[in-house]
Design a protein that fits this description.
Blueprint lengths: L1 H12 L4 E2 L11 E12 L2 E8 L7 H9 L8 H13 L5 H4 L6 H7 L5 H18 E7 L3 H17 L17 H6 L14 H13 L2
Antiparallel strand pairs: 1-4, 2-3, 2-4
Helix pairs in contact: 1-7, 1-9, 3-6
Length: 213
Protein backbone atom coordinates (compact mmCIF):
# COMPACT_ATOMS: atom_id res chain seq x y z
CA UNK A 1 0.00 0.00 0.00
CA UNK A 2 2.71 2.47 0.94
CA UNK A 3 4.50 1.81 -2.36
CA UNK A 4 1.45 2.83 -4.37
CA UNK A 5 1.13 5.94 -2.21
CA UNK A 6 4.84 6.65 -2.68
CA UNK A 7 4.45 6.33 -6.45
CA UNK A 8 1.39 8.58 -6.39
CA UNK A 9 3.27 11.29 -4.49
CA UNK A 10 6.21 11.01 -6.89
CA UNK A 11 3.95 11.48 -9.90
CA UNK A 12 1.95 14.32 -8.35
CA UNK A 13 5.07 16.12 -7.20
CA UNK A 14 6.33 16.18 -10.77
CA UNK A 15 3.20 17.81 -12.16
CA UNK A 16 2.80 21.54 -12.77
CA UNK A 17 1.91 23.21 -9.48
CA UNK A 18 -0.72 25.94 -9.30
CA UNK A 19 -1.13 28.52 -6.57
CA UNK A 20 -3.47 31.41 -5.91
CA UNK A 21 -4.06 33.47 -7.96
CA UNK A 22 -4.24 30.92 -10.77
CA UNK A 23 -5.10 31.43 -14.43
CA UNK A 24 -8.18 29.63 -15.77
CA UNK A 25 -6.61 29.15 -19.17
CA UNK A 26 -3.87 26.83 -17.88
CA UNK A 27 -6.27 24.53 -16.03
CA UNK A 28 -8.27 21.87 -17.93
CA UNK A 29 -12.04 22.09 -17.93
CA UNK A 30 -12.44 18.53 -16.65
CA UNK A 31 -10.29 16.56 -14.26
CA UNK A 32 -9.18 15.65 -10.77
CA UNK A 33 -7.34 18.11 -8.54
CA UNK A 34 -4.74 17.19 -5.92
CA UNK A 35 -4.09 19.58 -3.02
CA UNK A 36 -0.91 20.15 -1.04
CA UNK A 37 -0.55 22.21 2.13
CA UNK A 38 2.41 24.19 3.43
CA UNK A 39 4.34 22.35 6.13
CA UNK A 40 2.93 18.91 5.32
CA UNK A 41 5.26 16.23 3.98
CA UNK A 42 4.96 12.58 3.00
CA UNK A 43 7.25 10.11 1.23
CA UNK A 44 10.00 12.72 1.07
CA UNK A 45 7.90 15.30 -0.82
CA UNK A 46 4.90 17.54 -0.20
CA UNK A 47 2.08 15.47 1.30
CA UNK A 48 -1.25 15.25 -0.55
CA UNK A 49 -3.96 16.52 1.80
CA UNK A 50 -7.05 16.40 -0.40
CA UNK A 51 -8.24 14.99 -3.71
CA UNK A 52 -11.35 16.22 -5.45
CA UNK A 53 -13.22 16.47 -8.73
CA UNK A 54 -16.52 17.73 -10.12
CA UNK A 55 -19.71 16.15 -11.42
CA UNK A 56 -21.00 18.66 -13.99
CA UNK A 57 -19.29 18.92 -17.40
CA UNK A 58 -16.49 21.49 -17.74
CA UNK A 59 -16.71 22.51 -14.08
CA UNK A 60 -13.18 21.92 -12.77
CA UNK A 61 -12.22 25.59 -12.93
CA UNK A 62 -15.39 26.76 -11.21
CA UNK A 63 -15.00 24.07 -8.53
CA UNK A 64 -11.51 25.31 -7.71
CA UNK A 65 -12.84 28.86 -7.50
CA UNK A 66 -15.50 27.70 -5.02
CA UNK A 67 -12.67 26.52 -2.81
CA UNK A 68 -10.13 29.30 -3.28
CA UNK A 69 -12.15 32.41 -4.13
CA UNK A 70 -15.89 32.35 -3.50
CA UNK A 71 -16.57 33.08 0.15
CA UNK A 72 -19.49 30.74 0.72
CA UNK A 73 -18.84 27.71 2.94
CA UNK A 74 -22.16 26.14 1.90
CA UNK A 75 -20.78 25.70 -1.65
CA UNK A 76 -17.51 24.13 -0.54
CA UNK A 77 -17.23 21.50 2.18
CA UNK A 78 -13.49 22.10 2.03
CA UNK A 79 -14.00 25.73 3.09
CA UNK A 80 -16.46 24.63 5.74
CA UNK A 81 -13.93 22.20 7.21
CA UNK A 82 -11.21 24.85 7.31
CA UNK A 83 -13.58 27.20 9.11
CA UNK A 84 -14.55 24.48 11.57
CA UNK A 85 -10.90 24.09 12.55
CA UNK A 86 -10.27 27.82 12.92
CA UNK A 87 -13.34 28.24 15.10
CA UNK A 88 -12.62 25.10 17.12
CA UNK A 89 -9.06 26.29 17.83
CA UNK A 90 -10.48 29.57 19.12
CA UNK A 91 -13.24 27.80 21.08
CA UNK A 92 -15.58 30.18 19.29
CA UNK A 93 -19.29 29.59 20.06
CA UNK A 94 -20.15 30.81 16.57
CA UNK A 95 -19.08 27.34 15.40
CA UNK A 96 -22.67 26.18 15.95
CA UNK A 97 -23.91 28.71 13.39
CA UNK A 98 -21.09 27.88 10.98
CA UNK A 99 -22.33 24.27 11.00
CA UNK A 100 -25.73 25.25 9.62
CA UNK A 101 -26.38 25.08 5.89
CA UNK A 102 -28.22 28.11 4.54
CA UNK A 103 -28.40 26.97 0.92
CA UNK A 104 -32.19 26.55 0.81
CA UNK A 105 -34.84 29.19 1.31
CA UNK A 106 -36.41 27.08 4.07
CA UNK A 107 -33.13 26.97 5.97
CA UNK A 108 -32.73 30.72 5.69
CA UNK A 109 -36.24 31.32 7.00
CA UNK A 110 -35.72 28.90 9.88
CA UNK A 111 -32.24 29.90 11.03
CA UNK A 112 -31.37 33.09 9.20
CA UNK A 113 -31.80 35.15 12.36
CA UNK A 114 -28.78 33.39 13.88
CA UNK A 115 -26.36 34.78 11.31
CA UNK A 116 -24.12 37.67 12.27
CA UNK A 117 -23.39 38.82 8.72
CA UNK A 118 -20.31 40.88 9.56
CA UNK A 119 -18.83 38.15 11.74
CA UNK A 120 -19.59 35.43 9.20
CA UNK A 121 -17.91 37.49 6.49
CA UNK A 122 -14.86 37.84 8.70
CA UNK A 123 -14.65 34.07 9.12
CA UNK A 124 -15.02 33.53 5.38
CA UNK A 125 -12.17 36.01 4.87
CA UNK A 126 -9.98 34.11 7.33
CA UNK A 127 -10.75 30.87 5.50
CA UNK A 128 -9.84 32.45 2.17
CA UNK A 129 -6.61 33.84 3.57
CA UNK A 130 -5.62 30.45 4.94
CA UNK A 131 -6.44 28.56 1.74
CA UNK A 132 -4.89 31.09 -0.62
CA UNK A 133 -1.71 31.31 1.46
CA UNK A 134 -1.18 27.65 2.37
CA UNK A 135 -2.54 25.48 -0.45
CA UNK A 136 -1.27 24.63 -3.90
CA UNK A 137 -2.56 22.03 -6.35
CA UNK A 138 -1.90 20.02 -9.47
CA UNK A 139 -4.43 18.48 -11.83
CA UNK A 140 -5.00 15.39 -13.93
CA UNK A 141 -7.02 16.13 -17.06
CA UNK A 142 -9.85 13.58 -17.36
CA UNK A 143 -12.81 14.13 -19.64
CA UNK A 144 -14.95 11.14 -18.65
CA UNK A 145 -17.08 11.68 -15.52
CA UNK A 146 -17.16 7.99 -14.56
CA UNK A 147 -13.39 7.77 -14.73
CA UNK A 148 -12.98 10.97 -12.72
CA UNK A 149 -15.18 9.77 -9.90
CA UNK A 150 -13.66 6.30 -9.83
CA UNK A 151 -10.11 7.59 -9.77
CA UNK A 152 -10.93 10.19 -7.11
CA UNK A 153 -12.27 7.44 -4.83
CA UNK A 154 -9.22 5.21 -5.29
CA UNK A 155 -6.84 8.11 -4.76
CA UNK A 156 -8.52 9.09 -1.50
CA UNK A 157 -8.60 5.49 -0.30
CA UNK A 158 -4.92 4.99 -1.09
CA UNK A 159 -3.95 8.08 0.88
CA UNK A 160 -6.13 7.20 3.86
CA UNK A 161 -4.86 3.61 4.01
CA UNK A 162 -1.18 4.58 3.93
CA UNK A 163 0.42 4.39 7.36
CA UNK A 164 3.33 6.58 6.26
CA UNK A 165 1.21 9.56 5.16
CA UNK A 166 0.58 11.08 8.54
CA UNK A 167 -0.12 14.72 9.37
CA UNK A 168 2.30 16.85 11.32
CA UNK A 169 1.44 17.75 14.90
CA UNK A 170 0.94 21.34 13.74
CA UNK A 171 -1.50 20.47 10.95
CA UNK A 172 -4.62 22.64 11.17
CA UNK A 173 -6.79 19.58 10.56
CA UNK A 174 -5.82 18.24 13.99
CA UNK A 175 -8.20 20.89 15.37
CA UNK A 176 -11.11 19.47 13.40
CA UNK A 177 -14.16 18.34 15.37
CA UNK A 178 -14.44 15.51 12.83
CA UNK A 179 -12.46 12.45 13.90
CA UNK A 180 -12.24 11.19 10.30
CA UNK A 181 -10.24 14.24 9.27
CA UNK A 182 -7.88 13.99 12.24
CA UNK A 183 -7.37 10.27 11.72
CA UNK A 184 -6.90 10.28 7.95
CA UNK A 185 -4.86 13.46 7.70
CA UNK A 186 -7.06 14.50 4.78
CA UNK A 187 -9.46 17.38 4.28
CA UNK A 188 -12.35 15.04 3.44
CA UNK A 189 -14.50 12.36 5.01
CA UNK A 190 -15.90 10.48 2.00
CA UNK A 191 -14.24 7.58 0.13
CA UNK A 192 -11.83 6.88 2.99
CA UNK A 193 -10.49 3.33 3.54
CA UNK A 194 -12.18 1.82 0.49
CA UNK A 195 -10.63 0.28 -2.63
CA UNK A 196 -7.14 1.69 -3.25
CA UNK A 197 -5.21 2.21 -6.47
CA UNK A 198 -3.97 -0.87 -8.29
CA UNK A 199 -1.10 -1.21 -10.75
CA UNK A 200 -3.38 -0.48 -13.70
CA UNK A 201 -4.58 2.72 -12.03
CA UNK A 202 -1.02 3.88 -11.45
CA UNK A 203 -0.15 3.21 -15.07
CA UNK A 204 -3.16 5.27 -16.11
CA UNK A 205 -2.10 8.12 -13.81
CA UNK A 206 1.38 8.02 -15.34
CA UNK A 207 -0.18 8.40 -18.79
CA UNK A 208 -2.40 11.27 -17.63
CA UNK A 209 0.55 12.97 -15.98
CA UNK A 210 2.62 12.78 -19.16
CA UNK A 211 -0.26 14.32 -21.10
CA UNK A 212 -0.54 17.27 -18.70
CA UNK A 213 2.72 18.39 -17.10
Amino acid sequence: MSQHCTDLHRIAYGLTRHRFPFEDSVIPRNGVYILFETGEYGHGVDRIVRVGTHTGPNQLRSRLKQHFVQENKDRSIFRKNIGRCLLNKDKDPYASVWELDFTTRVAKLKNGHLIDSAYQSNIERRVSDYIQTNFSFCVLSIEDKTERLSLESRLVSTLSLCEECIPSIHWLGMSSPNEKIRRSGLWQVNELYKEPLNNQDLNRIEVLANEYV
